[in-house]
Design brief:
binds 4'-phosphopantetheine; single chain; alpha/beta; 5-stranded parallel sheet; 17% strand
């Protein structure tokens, strides 16, 4: 039998219940799953730094003994080869995700044909959920119940309050 190691890459800023749903599905399918937080994202200033994201993910996957969390830099396919991984796991929530995911999967395959991308669907109730929406709702003081675990909700609220107070402090009246 083959030992299938999959990488689940992303920015996880912060981890959502949709991510956790996918991690649980992936943990059942693959022998080993590495949740890999990308360092070099061209996405503007993140809410959480990489170590904070890693710590929250680790706290959330404690019960899964074939799942680990890591931080990677550079090309995903290079990291896959370094980790002896044969698959990349990505979630597809809606048709709108498909075009970008297809482009990424095919480009990754062109660069590294030994690595296959596997798409999985999270539960329907998470199909509208993203880290970006969680950050936006939090900044505007809306409810996060059911979108992220309780511990992550507390961390998000603390972080948003901290960033907003820094902003207020540096802005002239
Ligand atoms: O959670 P995200 O932001 O959708 O994750 C995107 C991610 C991290 C998977 C993607 O940006 C990525 O793979 N970055 C690593 C750099 C890389 O390999 N880029 C070429 C992709 S074809």
């Amino acid at each position: 039998m083959k030992d299938i190691v999959a990488i689940y890459p992303g920015s996880f800023d912060p981890v959502t219940n949709g991510h956790l749903d996918l991690i649980h599905r992936g943990a059942k399918l693959f022998d080993r799953l590495i949740v890999a937080i990308a360092r070099n994202l061209d996405k503007g200033e993140p809410l959480f730094d990489l170590d904070e994201r890693k710590e929250m993910l680790q706290a959330m996957i404690g019960d899964l003994d074939n799942v680990t969390v890591d931080i990677f830099e550079g090309l995903l396919v290079t990291y896959c080869i370094q980790q002896n991984a044969n698959a990349v796991l990505r979630g597809i929530r809606a048709v709108s995700d498909y075009e970008f995911e297809l482009q990424m999967a095919l480009m990754n395959r062109k660069m590294e044909p030994r690595v296959e991308t596997v798409f999985m669907m999270p539960a329907e109730k998470y199909s509208y959920l993203s880290s970006r929406i969680v950050r936006e709702i939090a900044k505007l003081g809306g409810p996060l119940t059911g979108l992220v675990p309780e511990m992550v909700e507390q961390r998000v609220r603390q972080k948003v309050a901290q960033k907003q107070s820094v902003l207020v402090g540096t802005h002239p009246k």
